[in-house]
Write the structure tokens for this entry.
Amino acid sequence: MILQKSSRILRNFNINRIQNHFIVTRNLSVSTRLNEQQSATSGGATEHYDIIIGGGGLVGTALAASIAQNKTLAEKKVLLLEGAPPFKGFDVNKPYGNRVSAINKNTIALFQSIGIWERMTNARVKPVKQMQVWDANSDALINFQHEHFADDVACIVENDLMLDSIYNQLNENSPNVLVRNLSRIADVKLPSKTGKGHSEVTLQGGEKFTCELLVGADGANSLVRKEMAVDVFSMDYQRMGLVATLELSEAGDNSVAWQRFIPTGPVALLPLTDKLSSLVWSTTIPHAKELLNMSPEQFIDALNEAFCKEFPKSDVAVKALDVLNSLLGHNTNTLRQYPPRVAGVMDKSRATFPLGFLHASSYVSPGAALMGDAAHRVHPLAGQGVNLGFSDVTFLVESLAEGTYAGAKLSDMQYLTKYEQRALTKNVPIIVGIHGLHTLYTTTFSPVVLLRSLGLQLTNNIPQIKDIFMKRAMG
């Protein structure tokens, strides 16, 4: 009797323990579940995945979520490697972050496809209804009015909100995706060098993984790109970008994005709420450091001056613009608006980052692909950097799905080359154009000011050209 009772107690204990283990395991996040496997992996076993993504930033996480939500690829086993600690999450009740992006229509379509756009709009997303860009050296301008912004095709979103929404989607609806934090890649071996049919990844902790396709979403200093040995054209602009969250003097609709090209570089205000805007100010390194160290009062004065100060004009450009506007029958002064006055800067929101240009000669090689900043890096003046990365995600998932449906391997160069062709067709004109704008607007040489001013004013006054520019910018 005692033995039977003991056996029954032990059996019930084991059943309860199994049930509790199941409940706990089911409620663990993706990253936590993977961390439980790390000790086994570090013991010497090499685990194989269909796809390994290096880099858990916006582009890498969006790729993982997009693969998981694609019907053709949903069963593929994906490992997302992120060197940083687990993301802390996003709190809508906390102050706005200083890292925001102007996302376009195609990016919104991607977010809708992976099921996160509604989550983001329920938090805080600000549509842009108008945009004005003007040249301080000539007063040439381009003004995109309401009719160019149907369906709120431009929206300002905090980067942390995007990342939080994607990670939540991975945790809740992507059982095939495992996220591993604090996992920095130390070494990469591709099939072209090993002669094997897979890529190999070794982490700094010694753990090893293999995969059919390795995706480098690991930033401008991409280790995956270096292993691919592709040519890279890069340039240090010797400029810095300064970001901050600003409080406006008066509350209003605040749905206009403002950008003024001043002699040191472009300064832009992006709307966040009726009373708040985000700043992106590109300038020289000494000036950026000076702005960073100013008192709040000094900084606000310098910023308001940047938008309102009368800078020395190019007489040749001004006269040419007067003639052009007279021929076109336009009065520039009736078109120009002025941004709201800044009254305050949020505490600790000022930060700087270096500016540069980078483009890889190829985005793919056998067993590997590049995307985002690992493939291309641009100046923030047109707000296109993150949108180009998200379009890479769309093109790669489309190409992989086509290949998988046709029975091809994920590493098949025919379909990886399709991704590259689609991405290059979209990216190169925008990348070259942004680099050209940066070059044009970092000089006060009169002939250059004349050419850029006439170009800007003609674009503003010829609807067909304006629409082309708008379609490029908005996706």
The CA atoms of residues 244 and 349 lie 5 Å apart.
